[in-house]
Specification:
346 residues, Aminopeptidase, two-stranded antiparallel ribbon, binds zinc ion
Amino acid sequence: MKKIILLFTLVLVLISCKSKKETSDNETSTKKPLNLASEYAPTINIKDVKKHIYKLASEEFEGRSTGEKGQKLAAKYLANQYSEFGVKEYSNNSYFQSIPISALTNKRRHYTPKNPSENVIAFIEGTEKPDEILVISSHYDHMGIENGELHPGADDNASGTTAVLEIAQAFAMAEKDGNGPKRSIMFVNFTGEERGLLGSKYFVTNPVAPLTNIVANLNIDMVGRVGKEHENDTNYVYVIGANRMSTELHNINEKANETYTKLNLDYTYNEESDPNRYYYRSDHYNFAKNGIPIIFYFNGVHIDYHKPTDTPDKINLELLTKRAKLVFYTAWEIANREERLIVDVE
Ligand SMILES: [Zn+2]
């Protein structure tokens, strides 16, 4: 009997040791600290950035005007890239959210596209909180050919679209290593932005997932150049909107930058009194309107803004790469932290 009791005790001790070990292993594997992100950030690099920028702003894509051939070729290019990275389509086995002409007509601007158009949507499902979604976005449309002149839109917004692709690739590599994000991440490239934020308007009025599930939107529009106010400081990015709804979101972005990218974060255009009103002028605003915290990353306007001279050779590839990394690190923390971002500012 004594022997049996001894054996029983031994088994109990062994079981409790084993379960303790499992808990601690689990803890380290689910924590996903910010520094794990730095293993994947190097995949966001100048070589890839150059490839995407030159492709998106190429003559072949004809300035990517909404509903036209060049925009559709660009959409296909984006879908192919996501597919190569291993980032899947969100619904109906398609990367495209089709938008009818009626939803792309802007009466105020007397604008109607020739054809329907499409947002491009790719998705990585969260490992622990799949219903909570971080949206990382850019518009990929531009002005097309006007008065016989090609508007390549390299900065506006092949640059932001390139950044979204590179960030998607980094998260896809992490996922392959078993380090996929806790929350889901949706990568969205909007059409119709230049005609009045029409693609993002359609996205929030015909949501593919409930809007209440979207924890934040990081929107990237023009990040490849140095604006006219920054000729003496080229290591910067304008950050707009970060603190307007969530103090945490502002702090996360600050900390990611302090730790890794060390850009000068310029909040000039975040002032509510700023006459440029950029907070209302790109796709993130359609999220903000719906109570979703946003950050808008932006380099400011320059001499080639909305001109045929917005060409890829003028893009600062190194700066674009660094700015994309800042968005990646911020996204990593939002997607992997324990609690959902708190909306604390009215
Ligand atoms: Zn733009």
